[in-house]
Amino acid sequence: MTRLASLALLSYAAPATAAEPRKPNVVVIVSDDHGYGDLGVHGCKDVPTPNIDSLAKDGVRCSSGYVSGPYCSPTRAGLMTGRYQQRYGHEFNPGAPAADTADIGLSPKEKTLAERLKAAGYRTGLVGKWHLGHGDKFHPLARGFDEFFGFLGGAHSYLKPGAGPNAIFRGKEAVDEKEYLTDAFTREAVGFIDRSAKQPFFLYLAYNAVHGPMEAAAPYLKRFPDIKDDKRRTYAGMLAALDDGVGKVLAKLKAAGVENDTLVVFHSDNGGPEAVNASDNGPLRGVKATTWEGGVRVPFLLRWPGKIPAGKVYDHPVIQLDMTPTALAAAGVAATADDKFDGVNLLPYLAGEQAGAPHAALYWRFGGQMAVRAGDWKLVKAAEASGVSRREKATVDGAKLFNLKDDLGEQTDLAAKHPDKVKELAALWQKWDAELVPPAWGPGAKKKD
User: Fold this and answer.
1) Is residue 374 part of a domain?
2) Comparing C-alpha atoms, which of 4, 3, 49 is closest to residue 279?
3) Over 80: is that where the pLDDT of 196 sits?
4) Strands 300-303 and 60-62
5) Catalytic-residue membership of 131
């Protein structure tokens, strides 16, 4: 797709009338380390997820929904900016808060979705996990959010309050939160909607469930007496709390009379780390932190009653980078070439007004791992198979080729049979890779003088 065509699609919005309609609300819900197979609409049998599933029933399920990083913080950076995070050095997670990490976080040169929507008159709130920097210049309140309740790092206990930089914060003040953390985040999200429903609002609800530590509240554990594996049972309890929370947020949107005026998006930040939290990536090969499908393909659902179809399955590849231009288009916020979005406004595609695929190709780089998907073909070099590490520089040498339409589980390497396709995809990835910068921190980062 040409840049001009992409920009044209970003202008998608209802035509103005004599009485300008209210701008729609935007609610983005992100789960954490959530396995692709751990959703009822993806075939999960042992953990019911009726509320998350309702988004598929009442909206669109993207069967090939991706994230641009197989890891927590990089995905969140891409989500907030609509741009591949490797373009500005955010390839890896920032470290735990310490003196040498004070300047590590989402680049202040990048404008966030919250900043863009706030400038358009939206009330903006973040509830949950930030993981985009601990220093003051990276704080959510400095990156476009009017309200923040949550934690700044990558993980937090669900049962015990954190302390110091790992505390639960309301704004910049630490709070002694007593409630099970997933329930507390739901409570705060519902409260934000209550306070904001009279004006357009943007809610970024970033649950840390089902990321470790593996801690489930007793009432949720009691729902799963038939799951004998203790870790899987705990995971089930954590996922049940998350699903209940999504249900309460959707119920509040309806009770506030803004259900039909709200674009709701749900996706995970990466695939499940199956051995760590007993998640299940279903038919997909690989896990979190790999560029196999199991690391980067995630549950991905959108609902906007009356604007996008109900009960539709959309099979063309989409990515979380699309959420910034999609949300801006919904809000009637014009984009320019200077924004340099890698994401695409999905609304006309989901509504059937635009034919074809939103992306000619999608790309990944994570240390020594790489991947590119174009159509049904994927070229990938991932840790599980080749032993590449995050400390290596990614190349296409030795990459494997798969046809995902015929081989979703990436089992049959077709590189030897289709050398021309390997060459084609390798050239695409190398061109993209040449546009990127080295990691700003972590493996491969240049040492500061």
Assistant:
1) yes
2) 49
3) yes
4) antiparallel
5) yes
Choose among 236, 281, 263: nearest CA to 60. 263
Q: How confident is the model at residue 11 (pLDDT cuts 50, 70, 90)?
A: very low
| 168: nearest Cα among 199, 126, 128 | 128
| 408-420 confidence digits (pLDDT tens) | 999 999 999 999 9
State how beta strands 300-303 and 168-170 pair.
unpaired
Domain count, the chain: 2
Which of the residue ranges 102-106, 153-157, 210-214, 222-226 would you say has the lowest mean pLDDT?
A: 102-106
50-59 pLDDT, tens digit each? 999 999 999 9
- Whether residue 286 sits in one domain with residue 240: yes
Residue of 34, 44, 72, 211 marked active site? 72
- Give the mean pLDDT of 185-197: 98
Residues 225 and 128 in one domain: yes
Which range of residues forms the domain containing residue 107? 3-9+23-350
Q: Render pLDDT for 128-142 as a digit per residue (tens, 0 to 9).
A: 999 999 999 999 999
Among 301, 316, 350, where does a domain finish? 350
First to last CA, the chain: 41
Choice among 42-51, 211-220, 320-329, 388-397 with the minimum mean pLDDT: 388-397
Whichever domain contains 367, its CATH number is 3.30.1120.10
- φ and ψ at 384, to 5 degrees? -60, -35
Distance of CA 279 to the CA centre of its chain: 17
* Distance, CA of 55 to CA of 42 (rounded, Å): 13
pLDDT of residue 387: 57
Q: Which of 42, 90, 131, 156 is catalytic?
A: 131
According to the model, what pLDDT value does residue 427 have?
A: 98
| CB distance 272 to 38 below 8 Å | yes
Burial (0-12, 13-18, 19+ Cβ within 10 Å), 256: middle
Please tell me whether residues 247 and 375 are part of one structural domain: no
CATH, residue 167: 3.40.720.10
Cβ neighbours, 10 Å, residue 15? 5
Residues 246 and 289 in one domain: yes
Cα–Cα distance measured from residue 432 to residue 354, given in angstroms and rounded to the nearest whole number: 25
C-alpha neighbours within 13 Å on the C-beta side of residue 57: 9
Give the mean pLDDT of the chain. Answer: 93
What is the mean pLDDT of the segment spanning 14-43? 85
Q: Do 270 and 171 share a domain, yes or no?
A: yes
Q: In the numeric block, which tokens belong to residue 317?
A: 């590849």
Quick one: which of 257, 253, 294, 255 has its CA closest to 272?
294
